[in-house]
């Protein structure tokens, strides 16, 4: 029995029942694939179900406000995915009358859709013969064929895409693609896979050469930077506060936060004066402050670790832009901010 037949038989017996596998609706499949970028299935599934419930068609998503989409996305991270979803939904509705592109060549033109996502939608929704290559596929192919080319290099990406294309079952491309991804997720796991029950054990190069824990090879990531964030939580006697939108490009673009001041190091309550607070803008002449958390709250992102403190600043009056603290949960915010809002007794 060859490689692809073994995988497809394994898949028929072991696959998880997931809602996007029960449909050919390209909107549903596209939505699931965007959500599952950088996200595990068990975390992404509830978000998928909430998005389908709130935005059952691409027209509903296109007509929604970005703020409501970001709010529903809150907690998934990599918020550019949500912004790209909205942009592409509007394009599909306004330019294509709501008809989804039905082939790889046109799908990859959508914002936020790369080779893997375009291949997945093309094969799952339209049965196009396009090989998918995600992290699971890299792992299965690297181990089974004993390939040590780094998967995050141009040469590696090209080599594994070519290999996957040569292996795909042209009669049932969608099933094959689902099978090899599921096999990597369930059987050929990143850490401590149970090779004793693997149906490919007799011909797996990594198992034969004891390279299972070594493959696939991935070059080291970009150096992680360390930042110190100081959030200024202003509160007036009427329980109003300041909450601003991050409009600049970068992490958390268009999400909301308390006024932020970065510092070169972690500060304690006695060093509060080192923060550069724009007193003229806030017209603050008299205020009391306290430090909510003595120890930094460390929030880890892919390329930076944020060491965060929340400063509670009680003032007599705030600018007209202030909002009631009871409305804070209406705004899309990073988990770091959202957790504070849920914990702090305003």
UniProtKB/TrEMBL annotation:
UniProt enzyme class: hydrolase
Keyword Ligase applies: no
Protein name per Swiss-Prot or TrEMBL: Adenine DNA glycosylase
Function: Adenine glycosylase active on G-A mispairs. MutY also corrects error-prone DNA synthesis past GO lesions which are due to the oxidatively damaged form of guanine: 7,8-dihydro-8-oxoguanine (8-oxo-dGTP).
Catalytic reaction equation(s): Hydrolyzes free adenine bases from 7,8-dihydro-8-oxoguanine:adenine mismatched double-stranded DNA, leaving an apurinic site
Cofactor note (record): Binds 1 [4Fe-4S] cluster.
Transmembrane segments: none
GO molecular function: 4 iron, 4 sulfur cluster binding; 8-oxo-7,8-dihydroguanine DNA N-glycosylase activity; adenine/guanine mispair binding; metal ion binding; oxidized purine DNA binding; purine-specific mismatch base pair DNA N-glycosylase activity
HhH-GPD domain span: 35-186
Keyword annotations of the record: 4Fe-4S, DNA damage, DNA repair, Glycosidase, Hydrolase, Iron, Iron-sulfur, Metal-binding
UniProt-listed SMART domains: ENDO3c
Coiled coil: none
Cofactor: [4Fe-4S] cluster
Record EC number: 3.2.2.31
Listed GO biological process terms: base-excision repair; mismatch repair
Family: Belongs to the Nth/MutY family.
């Amino acid at each position: 029995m060859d490689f692809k037949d073994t995988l497809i038989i394994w898949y028929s017996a072991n696959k998880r029942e997931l809602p996007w596998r029960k449909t050919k609706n390209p909107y549903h499949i596209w939505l699931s694939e965007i959500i599952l970028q950088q996200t595990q299935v068990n975390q992404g599934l509830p978000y998928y179900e909430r998005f389908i419930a709130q935005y059952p068609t691409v027209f509903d998503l296109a007509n929604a406000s970005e703020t409501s989409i970001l709010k529903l996305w809150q907690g998934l991270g990599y918020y550019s995915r949500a912004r790209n979803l909205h942009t592409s939904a509007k394009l599909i509705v306004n330019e294509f009358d709501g008809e989804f592109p039905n082939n790889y060549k046109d799908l990859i033109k959508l914002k936020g859709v790369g080779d893997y996502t375009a291949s997945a939608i093309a094969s799952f929704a339209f049965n196009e013969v396009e090989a998918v290559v995600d992290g699971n596929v890299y792992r299965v192919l690297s181990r089974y064929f004993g390939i040590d080319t780094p998967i995050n290099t141009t040469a590696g990406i090209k080599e594994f895409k070519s290999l996957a294309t040569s292996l795909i079952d042209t009669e049932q491309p969608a099933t094959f693609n689902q099978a090899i991804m599921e096999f990597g997720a369930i059987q050929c796991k990143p850490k401590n896979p149970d090779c004793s029950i693997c149906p490919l054990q007799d011909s797996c190069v990594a198992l034969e050469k004891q390279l299972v824990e070594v493959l696939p090879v991935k070059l080291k990531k970009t150096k992680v930077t360390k930042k110190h964030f100081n959030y200024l939580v202003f509160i007036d006697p009427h329980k109003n506060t300041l909450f601003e939108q991050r409009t600049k490009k970068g992490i958390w673009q268009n999400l909301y936060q308390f006024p932020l001041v970065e510092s070169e190091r972690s500060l304690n309550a006695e060093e509060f004066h080192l923060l550069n607070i724009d007193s003229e803008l806030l017209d603050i002449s008299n205020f009391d402050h306290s430090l909510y958390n003595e120890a930094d709250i460390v929030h880890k992102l892919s390329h930076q670790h944020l060491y965060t403190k929340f400063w509670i600043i009680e003032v007599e009056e705030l600018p007209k832009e202030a909002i009631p603290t009871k409305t804070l949960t209406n705004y899309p915010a990073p988990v770091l901010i959202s957790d504070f809002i849920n914990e702090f007794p305003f």
